[in-house]
Design a protein that fits this description.
This protein is α+β, with helices and mostly antiparallel strands. It has one domain: GMP Synthetase, Chain A, domain 3. A three-stranded mixed sheet has the order 1-2-3. A hairpin with a 4-residue loop joins strand 1 and strand 2. The chain is globular.
Length: 108
C-alpha cells in the first residue's frame, strides 16, 4: 500500500465504489452498485482495477453500453492506472442481490 502523496489502495477502492454509485441501470432508477450488479471488485497497489459485473438480464438493452460506461468512469479517477471490466452471467442476477437501500427506493 502506498502512503503520503499517493492514494492508498483502500482509498482508491472507496473512490471506485463512489464512481460505481454514479452509474445507473437505464431501466431501474437505482445505481448498479446498490442493485448488486457488481460481483467482484479488486484494486491492486499499482492502481489497476478489476471489476466483475453482471446485468439484470442477458438481453438487457444496456449490455453493450453499461460496461463501457463503468470503464470510462473508473478511468477518470486519479490513481487508476488500468481498468478491466468483465461481464459475467453466473450466478444470474436476482432482485435478492439488491441492497436494502435499493429495495426501499423501489418500494420493495
Amino acid at each position: 500500500m502506498t502512503t503520503d502523496a499517493h492514494t492508498s489502495t483502500e482509498e482508491l477502492k472507496e473512490k471506485v465504489i463512489e464512481a460505481l454509485h454514479t452509474v445507473y441501470d437505464p431501466e431501474i432508477p437505482v445505481d448498479i452498485y446498490e442493485l448488486g450488479l457488481i460481483y467482484d471488485l479488486h484494486v491492486d497497489d499499482s492502481g489497476a482495477v478489476s471489476v466483475k459485473m453482471t446485468l439484470t438480464a442477458p438481453g438487457c438493452p444496456a449490455a453493450q453500453t453499461l460496461p463501457l460506461e463503468v470503464e470510462a468512469k473508473l478511468r477518470e479517477i486519479p490513481g487508476v492506472t488500468s481498468v478491466d471490466v468483465e461481464v459475467v452471467w453466473d450466478p444470474p442476477w436476482t432482485p435478492e442481490r439488491m441492497s436494502e437501500a435499493a429495495k426501499l427506493q423501489l418500494g420493495w
